[in-house]
Amino acid sequence: MSEELATGPKESPPAPRAGPREVWKKGGRLLSVLLAVNVLLLACTLISGGAFNKVAVYDTDVFALLTTMMLLAVLWILFYLLRTVRCPGAVPYRDAHAGPIWLRGGLVLFGICTLVMDVFKTGYYSSFFECQSAIKILHPLTQAVFVIVQTYFLWVSAKDCIHTHLDLTRCGLMFTLTTNLAIWMAAVVDESVHQAHSHSSSHGNTSYTRLTQDWERAGSAAGGDCSCNTAVCQVFQQGYFYLYPFNIEYSLFASTMLYVMWKNVGRLLASSTHGHNHTPSPISLFRETFFVGPILGLILFVVGLAVFIIYEVQVSGETGRTQQALVIYYIFNIVCLGLMTLVSLSGSVIYRFDRRAMDHHKNPTRTLDVALLMGAALGQYAISYYSIVAVVVGTPRDLLAGLNLAHALLMIAQHIFQNVFIIESLHRGPPGDETHGTPPREPCQGLTFANLDALHTLPACPPPAELVGPSPAGPQEALWIMPAFGARPHFSNTVEVDFYGYSLWAAIVNICLPFGIFYRMHAVSSLLEVYVLS
């Protein structure tokens, strides 16, 4: 009997039991996610319903909800700063990868622009406060307080791995994240309503009068005269509409940082992050290759601003000038997209000769960056494929149709190759982590293959990220500014509008374009991180 037991299969040792905190970790996350989903759905329902006249939801209801959410988020942030982090052993670890200085710097910049927008918005609604609800003036004031408190909170606490009040902290972070997403949705809907109203006014389109601006709905609801006739009122109105893109980016930047903090709640870190907690060397920022990419990017950025101004001036004029503006717009975008595609592809090819070790350690910040890059690119993919179908199947065969087709194809290629380059760059180890000894049996994993015998004869050169990292940043910012500040060639070029109809095409653009705009700014942040850490 003992021999049978000896020859039989050995029983595997029992798995170690997790501690009570680890067991409830997923339960605490589930509770906070359920809270966020329900609050977000409520906000989404009110915000989307408030954009239509046929729905008995007014913008005052939306403002009341957003104001309440921001006040609750501010109260929790103050509790976190004044009570939670002051508990003994509350923050035993700090995540070195979370909240890098360039991300926090961008958050401060967009936060300042959001505060200016709140000033314009307060002045705009105060211009005719006799027929306005008090919540419309209270909302931008509350948002200003929320932005100031949240920016300070993220600046000092973005790296925290909190180990006190775990469930309350998770719920508070998720609620604050949901508040930022609700503000983002409200800004996107307001901007889409503004664009739809401008298009219907300029083209005499009356089939979309369901979408109206909030001030028009407020005037009709209050039964008073809320027309914006004074010059100061019009300056305030145009000012806060032009500052909406910065508010949108601020909300998204804050949401990403809050998500990383939520993932780090209760996280245990080793004293040494496996040797991959590296910081950029100050000397590397002033090498001879440092100025090549930024200068090229700055030139393209300035040219992009000039193209955007020409487009905005000419697109509202005669038909011939609109066609000329579209040609200039598409040619500039094609040049930028082609250049960025070649640069990203070159970086990926150079990486095949780089023997630096890969970093496979757990990193919530990097995981989120990859997910955002892949997810946000889907919006631009959708618009491009819809444009390709409309151009190929549609009847126009002129120069504008050809430029539109080339623009859509290059847009897809640029997103693909840039994502490959950024994701591979984020997973590479720090400088000096090159593999030594004999190469592995399967050393080539990528798009191309390298000659291993020639690796030892190559001259020393800067890392690929130093050569190509900053180059696409300037075009990225130029391609962000154009759609973010109102350039809509999707409607000025009538190919897609005639093919799909305005209703369907407007829905596609208004849903997908905000993700494409966010992709550009997030790509700038990722490229800067890749360049500095190289």
From TrEMBL:
GO terms for cellular component: plasma membrane. The keyword Cytoplasm does not apply. It comes from the Eukaryota. Its main location: membrane. One of its GO terms (molecular function) is proton channel activity. Keywords: Cell membrane, Hydrogen ion transport, Ion channel, Ion transport, Membrane, Transmembrane, Transmembrane helix, Transport. Belongs to the otopetrin family. PANTHER family: PROTON CHANNEL OTOP, PROTON CHANNEL OTOP2. This is Proton channel OTOP2. It comes from Camelus dromedarius (Dromedary).
